[in-house]
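Appendix B. One record, verbatim.
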Amino acid sequence: MDIRKTENVAVCEAICAPWKMLAWPMRCSSSARTSSHFTARRRICESFSGELRTPPGGYPMIEGLERVLDGTGQPGLHELRDLLEELLDGPSVEGTFIGHQDLQPRSMRVFRLRFAINGSPRTLIVKRLRPEIARRNELVAKRWLPAVGLSDLGPPFAGSVADRSGACVWHVYHDLGPHELDPQHPSSDAVRTAIEQIALMHTRFAGHALLGEVRLQGGDLGMHFVESNIRDAIYALEACQATPPHQQVRDRLLHRLYAIRDELPQREQVLEEWGGPETLLHGDLWAINVFVMQAANGLHARLIDWDHAAVGPFSYDLSTFLLRFPREHRRSFLKLYSEEVARSGWRLPADAELNALFETAEYARFANRVIWPAIALVMDHAEWGFESLAEIDQWFEKFEPVLPA
């Protein structure tokens, strides 16, 4: 017996125990069958010692699996394909990999994979993430949302695997289909369902014991986020050396940021008085991240892409969500949210205070977007930085109160 190998497997089996499902760099999945799950975990653990390799001919039961994302230059494809084989129950099925669709052509990190399994179509979504972002998303799905009885609000997580170097992690999700909210032609029933679930998340997680963990593993989108982004954007812009016409853009942005910096005490007071308790935030609540599908007992909402999950005031999420819709719909959608949170004893402030809260959230986001092109200009003389700054300057110029008068 190879004692070293036995010890490696024993150690890795301990690491893979259910209560440590989030540890890296192993893979974890929601496979249902105990026997196949044990086999998969053994395969993962043996890979640490470098003794297991895909057998010659690999993936014999799902034709083309070895070609998944071929030619895309993605890291960790060997590990991803192994995970897909497990999730699709490869040894027990007859199937074919049909092809992939790039869902984020600019970043090339999210793909829809199409298979035919035992004669039926099957699609999965795969997403490449930095390890810390992958962990955050997995905590949302497996720990934070379940802690408040909202397990089904998160994405339909299927499994995860780190590449051999540990530089990235692949997440695999069941495909929700084309059911994201349409902000230009919103269905009142779909929006109501989404708002009900968002309100439940905000109220149930308010003051929750896990907020410290969310802040550590996620972030803080409260007043600290506002102040630090304004300050850091000013630092970077002041260091920029620009000539006309770029200097005018830089100077306008600095003027705007100086004014917001001077208003920070008043904005902090409004947030303190009207921002409500800290809660779990999605952090990027665009309509494209909100899916509403028909389920057995009616409509059901799910929120995807929790990369920016954090602690903060409800207004941060609500501002993002409302701004995706035409102005004429926002007040009625706000009324739905107000009615839902009222069930938990929350009372939203008047429009003036809400608009002030929303404006603070948006200005913090704008300032955050200033930082990186400004740093690129200072450190790398990147010409694209001025184009980005000019675009952000227009965001400030065109911004109007979220709630119309």
